[in-house]
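Hello everyone,

My group is preparing for a crystallization screen and wants a predicted model to guide construct design. The compound we'll soak is flavin mononucleotide. Before spending weeks at the bench, it would help to have a computed complex in hand. I've included the protein sequence and the ligand's SMILES below. Output in structure-token form would be ideal because that's what our pipeline reads.
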Amino acid sequence: MNVLVGCTTVNGSTCEIAEHIGARLAEAGVTVDVRPVTRVDRADGHDGFVLGSAVHHQAWLPAAKDFIRDNSTLLRFRPVWLFSVGMPGALRGPWKGPHARKNR
Ligand SMILES: Cc1cc2nc3c(=O)[nH]c(=O)nc-3n(C[C@H](O)[C@H](O)[C@H](O)COP(=O)(O)O)c2cc1C
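Reply:
Good plan to model first. Here are the tokens for the complex, ready for your pipeline.
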């Protein structure tokens, strides 16, 4: 199986996590291609997908959403696993409070 581990990042941590995921899949015998989704030439060359994005303003980054939208027909018929990278402490308003209290 040939799996794309595609990432979208601003400061690098989402692609670092993608590298770790790719390494674990490779240990399990999976052929992996880890790269930013903006550098994927042909999505249809992959049998499965692990896709992750940093979260900004409670949403995936535009390039990650574009990749999903542009390849939605293909992704509907292949196994897909998604992950999000965020920092709840960065949230404003009611979402920040419970997290801050939990981690005191
Ligand atoms: C402008 C901005 C908005 C953010 N908004 C959120 C958010 O809504 N929710 C969240 O959990 N983290 C938020 N974060 C935190 C980032 O998701 C976090 O720093 C993440 O590690 C960034 O990943 P990256 O290093 O791959 O870019 C925000 C960060 C920035 C700079």
